[in-house]
Amino acid sequence: MEYVTLNNGVKMPILGYGVYQIPDAAECERCVLDAIEVGYRSIDTAQAYGNEEAVGNAIKKSGVAREELFITTKVWISNAGYEKAKASITESLQKLQLDYLDLVLIHQPFGDYYGTYRAMEELYEQGKIRAIGVSNFYPDRYIDLVRFTNVVPAVNQVETHVFNQQLDAHEIMKKYGTQIESWGPFAEGRNELFTNETLQMIGDKYNKTTAQVALRYLLQRDVVVIPKTTHKERMIQNLDVFDFSLSEEDMETIKGLDKKESAFFSHYDPQLVEMLVNRG
Q1: Range of 170's domain?
Q2: Pairing relation of β-strands 42-44 and 70-75?
Q3: Which of 30, 75, 82, 141 is the most core-located residue (most Cβ within 10 A)?
Q4: Pairing status of strand 11-13 against strand 3-5
């Protein structure tokens, strides 16, 4: 496994396992156990996913030493604000059966996220969290937060894949020292990513799948990725991306796939914002 070093010196695996949309407790526990067994050491969950307990059970049953694992969770909008965020993170620790978290992110840039961040800064100073950051923060809100808080976010987890490469946003994060992390590195299969002719053509050169090429492209751009699958064989396949490198020509070809827009939603859409803030 390769690692990135965050702005506070903490090392984070550049490739991890995400558990979004695995709400069934037994299924999630099985998936996390499989992921850890095949070599994943970074697990990404969130309060809103409803599976922190399952992740915690899997961690406990895995037999892997706590210090070898990198565990991320996220504070949801309904827990925004200093007091509620602090209580919710304590609850997340209990559900995950952990004494500390490696990374805590603000899940969405809505509600009193400044209060949330203050709570995270405090828990960070107390050693309950090793690194803090944000998720889904577009450059405008990201810069605003960076300039008016004490701790620069270690990570900003945003939709990043070959069709929405976040090249400009990535440069802004680099300027302030924040690591970009991709959610949805496969765009959840949208735009027919898994059968994309360009990715297939490049994959054939390296005897790799389109999914492996899509991941490798992001890794070579120093983007942390957390692909999700419920199939053990695909977990293994997603890890098998460190034995080849894309040429500069291939990187430029894939860069040309960038549509520079979300495959899912826009935070500038009022209906989307209403849906998110009304979600419990």
Answers
A1: 3-278
A2: parallel
A3: 75
A4: antiparallel
Q: Are residues 193 and 199 in contact, defined by beta-carbon separation less than 8 angstroms?
A: yes
Angle ∠(251,252,255) on CA atoms, nearest 5: 90
Contacts (Cβ under 8 Å, ≥6 apart) of 77: 107, 108, 110, 111, 276, 277, 279
- Residue 276's pLDDT is what? 92
CATH number at residue 113: 3.20.20.100
Q: Under a CB-based contact definition with an 8 Å cutoff, are residues 246 and 40 in contact?
A: no
Convert the pLDDT of each residue in 198-249 to its tens digit. Answer: 999 999 999 999 999 999 999 999 999 999 999 999 999 999 999 999 999 9
Helix (H, G, I), strand (E, B) or coil at 158: strand
User: How many domains does the structure of the chain reveal?
Assistant: 1
Q: How far apart are CA 70 and CA 67, in angstroms?
A: 8
Q: For residue 42, which amino acid is it?
A: S
SS3 86: helix
Which residues are annotated as catalytic?
A: 49
Whether 107 has a binding-site annotation, put simply, is yes
Q: How confident is the model at residue 279 (pLDDT cuts 50, 70, 90)?
A: confident
